[in-house]
Amino acid sequence: MINRTMFDEVMVPNYAPSQIIPVRGAGSRVWDQSGKEYIDFAGGIAVNALGHCHPELVKTLQEQGQTLWHLSNVWTNEPALKLAKQLCDATFAQRVLFANSGAEANEAALKLARLYAKKHYSSEKTEIIAFKNSFHGRTLFTVTAGGQPKYTEGFEPLPGDITHLPFNDLAAVEYQISNKTCAVIVEPIQGEGGIIAAEPVFLEGLRALCTQHNALLIFDEVQTGMGRTGKLFAYQGYQVTPDILTTAKALGCGFPIGAMLTSHDIAASFSVGTHGSTYGGNPLACAVASRALELINDPTLLAGVTQRQQMFISGLKQLNQKIGLFRDIRVEGLLIGCELKEAWQGKARDLLTQAQEQGVLVLTAGPDVLRLAPSLVIPYPEMKKGLQQLAQAMLAIKMGF
């Protein structure tokens, strides 16, 4: 019988998954092996933007699955070309590179930034400025760019010439940046770092400093892209245009795909043979992502994200007034972080476990922050039910369960 015990027998122990195994999903509900139902406020970590098994995405996958699965990059394919054109039309971009994940998209962005700087300026223009508590993926390059030492311990020696500065501290960047800086990489909203939004003046300042020093501004929108903030991409709400943008997670709404978006001039540095991916741009992933983009990049759906944001803000504040577990509630579209008060610091994982017991799936963003990233189209009755279940979990934590 397939059960949770089998994980400990056959899987590499780099994860510690829950004791339940979900086996079926529909919309914003999932069911485990015993048939218990859960409201999904986790969304596969901001991946399932249209919920589980959206009928339009299922239909697209079935149709493409009966047409063409894989070619390799010796040839291109129609779904990849269509998706690339859609992304260019919907953003600042003129060129797109496809990958399989956010980490791969960020890896490509960082490599491209270094290559572009060396080709256009100097072989010494190699510094990358990143920010503390950021997260950009788990390849050795991207995990080094991420500003969380716990993810790099034991993997030394690490790639060099990466400088970490405090997030939202423009003065620190102004002091550090120089003509040796090739790129600044930043999340418009730090996800794994606790749902911390960049201040508009900070991103505006980064844009100006990068322009002044001929450095590329890279926006990591792996978690914030595809409607999560109420805009198709978060940069559109800040009105600051990056040179390179990376996206993944909700791009395929659960089918693995990532993308790096940039301009024609910058993309030209990736000449034939400089970078590649066997599966990047495969027809199955691109067909699903193309339909997902059509569905998400819709004014009515994006307006619905803002409406649901307000309902979550109201509901969470009401819960907190009664229970008093959170010191701060940070909401950016449907990316939500609830920071625990000092008395309950370190118990975010316990709250996740209690929430699961009550029938609602949530996430954490570090040990002190509960994270919610539900479907962008979660029905209002399920929002209400999930919040009621979360309230019971909060009470259990407060009472010491």
Taken as a percent bin, the fraction of beta residues is 15-25%
Oligomer: single chain
Radius of gyration: 21 Å
Helix share, percent: 25-40%
What is the global morphology? globular
Low-confidence stretches: none
Given helix and strand content, the structural type is alpha/beta
What is the name of the CATH superfamily of the largest domain? Type I PLP-dependent aspartate aminotransferase-like (Major domain)
* CATH top level label of the largest domain: Alpha Beta
- The appropriate CATH architecture of the largest domain is 3-Layer(aba) Sandwich
Helix count, DSSP H or I runs of 4 or more residues: 14
Q: In order across it, which strands form the biggest sheet?
A: 4-12-11-10-7-5-6
Compute the separation of the termini in Å.
Answer: 32 Å
Largest sheet: 7 strands, mixed
**Number of E strands:** 17
Enter the CATH topology name of the largest domain: Aspartate Aminotransferase, domain 2
The tally of domains stands at: 2
Mean pLDDT: 97
Overview of the molecule:
The chain is of the alpha/beta class. It has 2 domains: 151 residues, Alpha-Beta Complex (Aspartate Aminotransferase, domain 1), CATH 3.90.1150; 241 residues, Type I PLP-dependent aspartate aminotransferase-like (Major domain) (Aspartate Aminotransferase, domain 2, 3-Layer(aba) Sandwich). Helix content is 39%, strand content 18%. The chain contains 14 helices and 17 strands. Strands 4-12-11-10-7-5-6 form a 7-stranded mixed beta sheet, sandwiched between helices. Strand 10, helix 9 and strand 11 form a beta-alpha-beta unit. Helix 4 runs parallel beside helix 11, helix 12 packs parallel to helix 14 and helix 13 packs across helix 14. The longest helix has 25 residues. The two termini are 32 Å apart.
